Amino acid sequence: MSSILVEPISRGLVAVTLNRPERRNALNIAMMQQLVESLRDLASDKITRVVILKGAGPVFCAGLDLAEAQDAQLVRQSATLVAQTLKSLKFGPLVTIAAVHGGAYAGGGGVVAACDMAIGTEDCKIGFPEARRGLLPALICDVLKTKVREGDLAELFLVGEPISAARAQQVGILQRVVATDALIDVAKQMAQNILAGGPQTIIDTKHLLHQAYGHLEQGHDEKHAGSSIDEHLKARFSEEAAEGLKAFTEKRLPSWMM
Question: Given Cys at both, which of 5, 32, 86, 107 links 63, Cβ 3.0 to 4.6 Å?
């Protein structure tokens, strides 16, 4: 079964589905590779202009696959793909709309923030529990820092409790909150309104927004992303990460060394 499903909806509009429902759509290496490749292929087909990103099963995305994250031989590859995934969504020419149901946690919340816009159901939750796993949300911070005020971002990262959809809209992660049964219809309507704009004008407007909000240019961004990956990896290889991840898989509280 493919980890990513690509389904054309109408001319110019495609739905891309995270398809690991048995793992709550946790981001493993294979899924991220397929997502990056799918976005690249859609961007080059000369037809697709808007992507609705959604998740199969009960939640949008539970974050990084922590079972895979404990394999030290895969850590660097995983971190590089997280960076590539976020960059593809944020800086690619396609307009990306996250349609969030159930929950989006850690890297899943980063995926939501990397999309140009996000719509969530009234009952969805968004949270960043990295500190409780001994991990550092360096890569996620890059996509959240221009959407969320500093104090709100501090609460998200330091407190670590999931927030409601209403609160996520208040702090800027979600643009709209809708009833569960209206999620995809609202996303489609938003996409159709985008498609009404001139194709090159929409691409140029997305670039204009990056400039207006001080997002790093592509070349510079790669250098900055490398620094964020280094910070991410430093935490991933730490003793606290080892204990935090072990405690999570063993369903117990971590025993931090003071």
Answer: 107
Sheet holding 117-121, edge to edge: 4-10, 13-18, 50-55, 95-100, 117-121, 176-178
Cβ neighbours for 59, distance < 8 A, ≥ 6 positions apart: 24, 25, 101, 102, 103, 104, 105, 108
C-alpha distances (whole Å) from 148 to each of 127, 162, 222 are 13, 15, 22
Neighbours of 218 (CB within 10 A): 11
For the chain, give the percent of residues with pLDDT over 70.
Answer: 93
Instruction: Please compute the mean of the pLDDT values over residues 91-112 and round it to a whole number.
Output: 98
pLDDT at residue number 126: 98
Closest CA to 165 of 219, 123, 195: 123
CA distance 164 to 160: 13
Question: At residue 220, does pLDDT exceed 50?
Answer: no
Residue 61 in contact with residue 105, Cβ under 8 Å?
yes
Neighbours of 73 (CB within 10 A): 6
* Tokens at 218, concatenated: 């592509």
Decide: 160 and 129 in contact? Cβ < 8 Å. Answer: yes
Would you list the domain boundaries of the chain? 4-180
CA distance 235 to 71: 14
Cβ atoms 39, 86 nearer than 8 A: no
Q: Is the model's pLDDT at 82 over the cut of 60? A: yes
pLDDT, tens digit (0-9, with 9 covering 90-100), for 19-56: 999 999 999 999 999 999 999 999 999 999 999 999 99
Instruction: Give the predicted TM-score (pTM) of the model.
Output: 0.87
Supply the CATH classification number for the domain 4-180: 3.90.226.10
